[in-house]
Design brief:
The complex is a heterodimer.
Chain A (H helix, E strand, L loop, with lengths): L2 H5 L8 H13 L2 H11 L3 H11 L2 H12 L4 H11 L2 H13 L3 H9 L3 H8 L4 H31 L12 H14 L3 H18 L6 H5 L1 H10 L28
Helix pairs in contact in A: 2-9, 2-10, 3-4, 3-5, 3-10, 4-5, 4-10, 5-6, 5-11, 7-9, 9-10, 12-14
Chain B lengths: L2 H22 L8 H24 E2 L2 E2 L3 H15 L4 H17 L4
Antiparallel strand pairs in B: 1-2
The chains are: A mainly alpha, B mainly alpha.
């Protein structure tokens, strides 16, 4: 979700603690899907938990698990997963102005800079409510996401054949759900998504797994050069303009 | 330490560094509209690529698994019906599992 659209959410009475806890619980439960997909991909329970504890950004975690499952290049898989986390830098820029965290606290706040915490924090009317919302969302989501990861990882480990339970579809379906709101945001997003998928499929047969996905970033580069101004003029029907708290269950993990 | 552990820890460190960078760097460094737009579009391109590759390849070759593709189609239907994230996942896995249970592979 582009952070600037969040700020343009309609004014409404905010309940930073209730909304933050609600969003954190609703999204955090999805950690079950990551834990199950990670173990189904061949990661150990502790590797799945380490990713949720330390990386704490869903799309990157699913991406690395996918490359491990394909037996691909770990170097390319790692680079792709990290590249997917680059949008959190933009959220951090926005949050720095609102939360103004200092030295030691900044190191802790940084771990919590993801889609959901940014959306909830930037939707608040004043800095005090923003700080409360960030803390409530981050704490709830971090705790729930990690417990759910552990539960999913242990559960999947007891399943004999991951394919019999459709666990191989969890990754692709999660990616689809993660980009779906962005696909509704504009034509450039849809073209970039199709081009990215096309580049990856066209090169998948000749390059090690993980590399085709990084090449797909070329589509994003071309899209950004072709339509740099769109970022500041979100479409009125942009999915990103939904006030996140009105439908927390519909949000997907970052 | 295995290569997978190294990948896990480097991924975690890299993701954390990107988050911390946003809180640390001067705001003007990322003020360019093109840079912002690129950072917005990167997840779109990469997630679409990941979804396509994991849906339609096996190892290094194109492989169309009917049950897996049906699961993905079910996920799309759930998304069109505005289902929450976890419901989308359960529907996708459930559809693939059900088809495999009746012999589609």
């Amino acid at each position: 979700m582009p952070a600037e659209t969040v700020i343009q959410a309609p004014a409404r009475p905010t309940r930073p603690v209730r909304d933050g806890v609600g969003l954190g619980l609703a999204v955090g439960v999805s950690g079950v899907a990551f834990g199950a997909a990670a173990v189904g991909s061949g990661l150990s329970v502790w590797q799945a938990c380490a990713l949720s504890l330390l990386a704490f950004t869903g799309a990157s975690q699913f991406a690395l698990a996918g490359v491990v499952a394909a037996g691909g290049s770990l170097l390319a898989g790692t680079a792709g997963a990290i590249l997917l986390g680059s949008r959190n830098t933009l959220y951090g820029l926005r949050l720095a102005g609102v939360l103004r965290p200092r030295r030691a606290r900044r190191l802790l706040v940084a771990l919590g800079v993801i889609d959901e915490t940014s959306a909830m924090t930037l939707a608040q009317p004043d800095p005090d409510a923003a700080k409360t919302a960030f803390t409530a969302t981050f704490c709830t989501l971090y705790l729930t996401w990690n417990l759910a990861t552990l539960a999913g990882a242990i559960g999947a480990g007891r399943v004999g054949s991951p394919q019999a339970f459709g666990l191989d579809v969890v990754g692709p379906a999660a990616f689809l759900a993660l980009i779906y709101p962005r696909l509704r945001a504009g034509r450039t997003e849809r073209v970039v998504a199709l081009a990215g998928a096309g580049i990856a499929l066209a090169t998948a047969a000749v390059l090690p797994a993980g590399v085709p996905v990084i090449l797909a970033a070329i589509a994003a580069l071309v899209g950004a050069l072709a339509s740099p101004a769109v970022a500041h003029q979100p479409a009125p029907d942009s999915a990103g303009a939904d006030p996140v708290a009105t439908d927390p269950a519909a949000r997907s993990p970052s | 330490m295995t290569a997978t552990w190294v990948a896990v820890l480097v991924t975690a460190a890299g993701c954390y560094a990107f988050k911390l960078a946003g809180l640390t760097v001067p705001q003007r460094l990322l003020a360019s509209a093109r840079v912002r737009r690129f950072a917005e579009l990167v997840p779109v391109a990469l997630l679409a690529a990941l979804s396509a590759v994991q849906s339609a390849t096996s190892g290094q070759s194109i492989a169309l698994d009917p049950a897996r593709l049906a699961g993905l189609a079910a996920a799309l239907v759930a998304l069109l019906l505005r289902a929450p994230f976890l419901v989308v996942i359960v529907v996708a896995a459930g559809a693939a599992a059900a088809l495999r249970a009746v012999g589609v592979s």
